[in-house]
Amino acid sequence: MTIIRQICESDVHSFRDALDSVSRERMFLAMLEAPPLESVRQFVLSSVTFGRPHFVATEGDEIVGWCDIIPGDPETGRTHLGRLGMGVRKDHRGRKIGQRLAEAAVEKARAVGLEKIELEVYSSNNPAIGLYRKLGFEEEGRKKHGRLVDGKYDDIVLMALYLRKPADGACVPMEK
């Protein structure tokens, strides 16, 4: 049975293993292997401490997938935005685990007041693009040949989901 729940401190090792497993497929994530354990520990502790949307799918003691939404930095004026990242171990795909994770993370992002969720996905990752569209994400742009791994180029598709759209005319023009 797969359980979807908020990440906790004791998940660090299993989360890193899942992250490394998906990274080493060299097809889905920006990284090609997981960061060092201490970096992952700091990332997880930050999610726990600040109550960020960071969910894991577990089967027994093993994390088989995750979805996190990291809010923007206050120093950049992007605190209203969140950046989504997710992955599911290869042998657990096709069971709607990713959908359940993303739905939980989006709901928590809405509850904590985020207005927009952004993500980047490789154009060759049709299952993920389909999932994001099903959840209401729309394409906002594309970085042509944005990735080159193992001699293969891939476009990076920029997608976003508005949790609360700004009112028309919300931008105020600068005075001359």
Entry summary:
With 176 residues, the protein is of the alpha+beta class. Helices cover 28% and strands 33% of the residues. It has 4 helices and 7 strands; from the N terminus they run βααβββαβαββ.
Main β sheet profile: 7 strands, mixed
Cα distance spanning the termini: 62 Å
How many DSSP E strands? 7
Count of helices? 4
Structural class: alpha+beta
Helices and strands, in N-to-C order?
EHHEEEHEHEE
Give start-end ranges of low-pLDDT stretches.
Answer: 172-176
The portion of residues assigned to helices is 25-40%
Question: What is the average of the pLDDT values?
Answer: 94
In percent, how much strand structure appears in the residues? 25-35%
Strand order of the largest sheet: 1-2-3-4-5-7-6
- C-alpha-based Rg, rounded: 17 Å
Globally, the shape reads: globular
